Amino acid sequence: MSSANRPKRDEKLKMEILNLPTCAVLRVTPPQGGHEQINSELDLREPVELGNFSLIGDRNYVHDTRKMAYLIEPPQDQRLDWDLNEAFDDRIPKNHSLSEKLDNLLRWICDNVEKFRAPCDGENSKLSGLHTDFVSYRGLLTTIMCSVYEQKENWILGVTLYKGSRYLCQYSTLEQIEREKNKSGWFERVAAWGYKFEQYMTASRPGGRPTPQEPINEKEEFCSVVRTRLGQRHSLVYGAEVDGVDDRLVAKYPEYKHSTRRYVEFKTSRFVETSRQRKNMARFKMVKWWAQCYLIGIPRVICGYRTDDGIVEQQRPANGKGH
């Protein structure tokens, strides 16, 4: 049978993936104890990008790169006066309490079943499975990695074992649901500032101009799907939202064209003025930044330092990747 007919042969597998059975749910409380008990060595192979997709409009899945954003850095000597409140009232906010589970990632898998073909499947036969131990989103893996440093935050993990692959999905705890319901307008504004900083730093095409004056749709995103291995035994495939791509790196290093090393992460933070603030930032923010970047293989984080009124006065890079 020709390769053109393979997707039809795998149609049943696609439908089975989209209708995964009910999962087992685990509630996990982080361990109590000092950080000195933790083995800091993490044998995670550098991720390889399998593909990507975009979410547009009201988070509608499309199998293309239309929401990829391109890094546009300001001149180094330029004094910044970026107002992150620009078009705040006209933005389309993202509902962070809405659980999408793995739906969009599974749609991408269904569109790319052939990328999971192994030698044991043969050339023309039906795939026996994904030949992957764990399928997830990066957010859940970040939570697991950081839980050894976070002793107050519980989390709930759902697991579905299907044809040898474990599909991992994070669910909100009662505490998180209650916190989201009672969240003040200030927290919504701070979250919106992060999206607006991305808009100041990127354009929709290489060499384009940022358009921070336009309202932003926080529901839209670009997502990369990667494969990696933990140690010698466990294979993982997971999706991760990507903030931007540095196309200059691709021009300089052509081998980065299909590497996550070309990506950039954007963050915002209040100006750090005291040693206590610096310590808290490292403990509660930067450890999560590092975990996010390490998991996807992003080498660079650009942080916009803002005032309490949401004015970015400077931006500077921080190392992200530990590979």
Automatic annotation (TrEMBL):
What's the EC number here?
3.6.1.-
What InterPro entries does the annotation carry?
RAI1, RAI1-like_fam
The UniProt entry, under Pfam families, shows:
RAI1 (PF08652)
The RAI1-like domain is annotated at 46-314
What superkingdom does the record give? Eukaryota
Q: Is Metal-binding among this UniProt entry's keywords?
A: yes
Q: Which cofactor does it need?
A: a divalent metal cation
Where in the cell does this protein reside? Nucleus
Provide the primary localization: nucleus
- KW tRNA processing (keyword) present: no
The record's section on PANTHER family has: DECAPPING AND EXORIBONUCLEASE PROTEIN, DOM-3 RELATED
Q: Which family does it belong to?
A: Belongs to the DXO/Dom3Z family.
Q: What does this protein do?
A: Decapping enzyme for NAD-capped RNAs: specifically hydrolyzes the nicotinamide adenine dinucleotide (NAD) cap from a subset of RNAs by removing the entire NAD moiety from the 5'-end of an NAD-capped RNA.
What is this protein's name? Decapping nuclease
Q: Which organism is it from?
A: Varroa destructor (Honeybee mite)
